[in-house]
Write a structure and sequence with these properties.
about 240 residues, Multidrug-efflux Transporter Regulator, Chain: A, Domain 2, two-stranded antiparallel ribbon, 12 helices, rod-shaped
Length: about 240
């Protein structure tokens, strides 16, 4: 049984180029060179090519397929390792499908992870608030992140929030002071209920300085100057400096 490279490639469902590549990297033994100079492949080559194609289809890299030819129980270990990887991939894809179903059902924004994406809350958020939540979800450490997620999912009702959202960019000193005065008790109650929010920079995976700088930059970018000024005043007062 001898075949040309095109014939053996066709029988195995691969391209002649792939056969040459397998030859070049040592996965497939060199073909027999006939007296007329033509290269011919036999039953052993056919079997090996079918093996390579099957293993590659199962997810083995060519390097792993080469390792399967080694002595001992390496092939069994390689199969088990691939099985574990596939199990992890399947679990990840199942979680992804669950997230997609929730997004389609609830209309939650894709930029927010499920812990922050409570539909009644996110649907009522301004674009600035939603973008700010995205930044917070990325820079906070585990404790502050959980506390902030709880707050986003179940925020206490507060008329003060409306006065802050409606504050115009050119608000005068009196308007800024009035909004600050109504917001301070609200923020203090949040800190009392969720102490981690009072020190939200702590434990950031990127360091407290990076977290603080990122949060301040987000405030400046997403909110108008009067709102940023009110937030600075609130922080000053709640820190006991005002």
């Amino acid at each position: 049984m001898v075949w040309s490279i095109r014939e053996v490639a066709a029988m195995c469902g691969v391209s002649p180029r792939a056969v040459r590549h397998y030859n070049a990297i040592g996965l497939l033994d060199p073909p027999t060179r006939m007296p007329n100079g033509h290269k011919r492949y036999d039953g052993g080559h056919l079997t090996r090519l079918l093996q390579i194609r099957r293993l590659a289809g199962l997810g083995f890299s060519l390097a792993r397929i080469a390792d399967l030819d080694g002595p001992g129980d390496g092939s069994v270990a390689a199969v088990r390792a691939l099985d574990a990887e596939l199990a992890d991939t399947i679990a990840r894809l199942r979680r992804a499908r669950e997230d997609l179903r929730e997004m389609m059902r609830d209309g939650t924004p894709p930029e927010l992870t499920p812990e922050f994406a409570s539909p009644p809350v996110t649907q009522g958020m301004s674009s600035a608030d939603r973008s700010f939540v995205v930044v917070m979800s990325r820079v906070l450490g585990p404790g502050p992140r959980r506390a902030y997620a709880d707050f986003v999912r179940d925020p206490p009702s507060a008329p003060a929030i409306g006065s802050f959202d409606d504050l115009p960019s050119d608000a005068d000193e009196q308007a800024r002071r009035e909004v600050t005065d109504v917001m301070v008790p609200y923020v203090r109650s949040l800190h009392a209920a969720r102490p981690e929010l009072a020190a939200m920079h702590a434990g950031s995976p990127y360091g407290a300085t990076f977290a603080r700088r990122s949060i301040e930059a987000a405030k400046t970018e997403l909110y108008n100057p009067a709102q940023v000024d009110v937030m600075c005043r609130i922080r000053w007062v709640t820190a006991g400096r005002g």
